[in-house]
Amino acid sequence: MTLWETLWSQRLSPNYHLIICLAILDKHRHVIMENEFGFTDILKYINDLAYCMDIQEVLIRAEQICLQLLVYPDTPEEVKAILTGKNEAMMTPNVERTDPFLMAHNRHVVQLLEGCGLGKD
């Protein structure tokens, strides 16, 4: 199975993309920690791995992590909410539903433009 097929299937979790990221970080944690990478360094390092990763290995590790988190009795509720899709803050946006924050932002931008004389005539 390819990465995109796995992501679109959302078979184990609607937030499976986060688990895949965790699997990548888990595999490379020694390099990241030994070099004491900061956020920017981690992004660059992971980005440089783009065509060098064994995707099957990453997907297998992601599945292992996800299943472990789903069955482990002491998994924190916040983590379970992310895994099961009950934490909307971590969900991929629903394009079918209007985002109230985006609508408020759009109204604010329109007001700013009108205040500068750039709004509708």
UniProtKB/TrEMBL annotation:
Protein origin, superkingdom: Eukaryota
UniProt-listed InterPro entries: Rab-GAP_TBC_sf
Protein name: Uncharacterized protein
